[in-house]
Amino acid sequence: MPALIIRLFFILSLTSGMVWSADKNSLPHIIMVMSDDHGYGDCGYTGHPFVQTPNLDAMAEAGVVFNRFYSSAPVCSPTRASVLTGRHPFRVNVPNHGHYLRPQESTIAEKLKDAGYVTGHFGKWHIGSVQPDSPTSPGGAGFDEWLSGLNFFDNNPYLSRNGKYEHIKGAGTVITMDATLDFLEKQNGKGKPIFIVTWFPSPHAPHPEIPEGMPNASRLYNDQDTNLKGYFREITLLDQQIGRLREKLRSLNIEQNTLLFYSSDNGGLDQKTSGGRAKKGSIYEGGLRIPAILEWPDRFSPKEIDTPCVSSDLYPTLLGIAGLKRGKGHPPLDGTDIMPIISGKKNKRASIGFWHGFRNGQSTWNDRIIKALLDAKTAGKPNPHPERILKNVNEFESFDQKNLIGHAAWNAWPWKLHRIQTPKETRFELYNLETDPMESDDLLKKQSKRVNIMKTALEKWQKSVLDSWSGRDYSKKY
Questions:
Q1: Regions of the chain short of the pLDDT cut 50
Q2: What order of strands is seen across the sheet that includes strand 303-305?
Q3: Which of 74, 192, 206, 306 sits in a 20 to 30 Å window from 348, CA-based?
Q4: Could you give the domains of the chain?
Q5: Tell me, what's the pLDDT at 478?
Q6: What confidence score (pLDDT) does residue 441 get?
Q7: How far apart are CA 336 and CA 69, in angstroms?
Q8: pLDDT value at position 105?
Q9: Can you spell out the DSSP letters for 37-51?
Q10: Where are the beta strands (DSSP E) in 214-351?
């Protein structure tokens, strides 16, 4: 009877948004899967006319589908930083691809370890180093075990396993899932809940990988645009890996109390199916809107969520699931716990801020860099890339708060205000996403009062973001 009471209290806590004292024996396993450049409309369940995603379609049929889920940024590294911290990526020093997440930040992996989880990261990292002595590595961010690449990787990649460099034969997407399943099987039954972050390197260009076990797989989608046929093939390959993962959960008999979440890191490469205006790299809807599915059979029946959600929501949501409080002095979050939205207790949320284009990205060539590290290690030579251990994580700039350069947006559903500042001008655009999802009818001149309110909120938020980026949220250096 006591166990039954605890279980009922657990369910009520999740559905009501209450803070509860977690029992590690009832905590769910959590697996967060993210692809690289998979666009919103490039799934069967979102209506794509031909791309084959039977496993994501099955997951969508059985789980919670988010119809308007956003990445925090329109490119890869910043969104990944937002997932781990619940904060806009500018706050944590990741304004564009290739920048490093500051080790001063508290990550969800570190927090879940405090709740008793064993943690693993597998696949693309791209928010820090993979060198063994770096606090910006997956290990430095709270992952007990990791097999990770600096950026996207394809066939026969060079990777870092807990700081030891390896050259592994095979497709990078399959290798990523192999490591995920090995860790899951090894840790299952040891009495600890499991937290896994699996970040596929696909379907990022140049798209050399092909699906497994399919006749003529190398010619699949050959009737499509030259720049997209490989992209679609890699989507089908990663979908196969989702199938392997779901099957492993069933074979281990842990699928009922496993929270499995799938999303992409930004909008896709095909503007026609992006789910909005533009595509990857843009603050317009097509660059931010992504596929997102949550499957947790013990807690949720199939449903669809229309309320906007964003990748920075994952951190506070997982804190709540694990029964963890933010604590005094926690730096400001941009995400919110969306469990009340999923459970149907709420259908509204706080406005969401976006900002991109303040800084350029930094090139990161995975195989070239890790091969150089491996070759130097093998030959007993000095580290060829000491500058990549920390980069600029201890540099705290002072920002001119009038210089809000770049493209920002404020999503106060259904309204979305764009602020575009260049060296020559600052201009605004306003769209009603409910009636104009393609952002083609600018209502700026017809909604002056609304524009002023949203403009004030957006610029206040931008200045707060710059305050965080300047290091005001912490003082520790590495």
A1: 1-21
A2: 164-167, 158-161, 145-149, 118-124, 194-199, 29-35, 258-264, 292-295, 64-66, 303-305
A3: 74
A4: 23-356 (3.40.720.10), 406-469 (3.30.1120.10)
A5: 54
A6: 99
A7: 13
A8: 96
A9: S--TT-STTTT-SS-
A10: 258-264, 289-290, 292-295, 303-305, 309-310
Contact call for residues 407 and 283 (beta carbons, < 8 A):
yes
pLDDT at 465: 98
pLDDT at 25: 66
User: Tell me, what's the pLDDT at 6?
Assistant: 39
What amino acid is encoded at 160 in this protein? S
Nearest Cα residue to 297 out of 29, 115, 86: 29
Quickly count: other Cβ atoms within 10 Å of residue 339's Cβ: 21
What is the predicted pLDDT for the residue at 200?
A: 99
Measured CA to CA, the distance from residue 400 to residue 423 in angstroms comes to: 14
- φ, ψ at 292 (rounded to 5°): -155, 130
Question: What are φ and ψ of residue 303, in 5° steps?
Answer: -165, 170
CB 335 within 8 A of CB 84: no
Per DSSP, 327 falls in state -
- Tell me how far apart the alpha carbons of residues 429 and 442 are, in angstroms, rounded to a whole number: 6
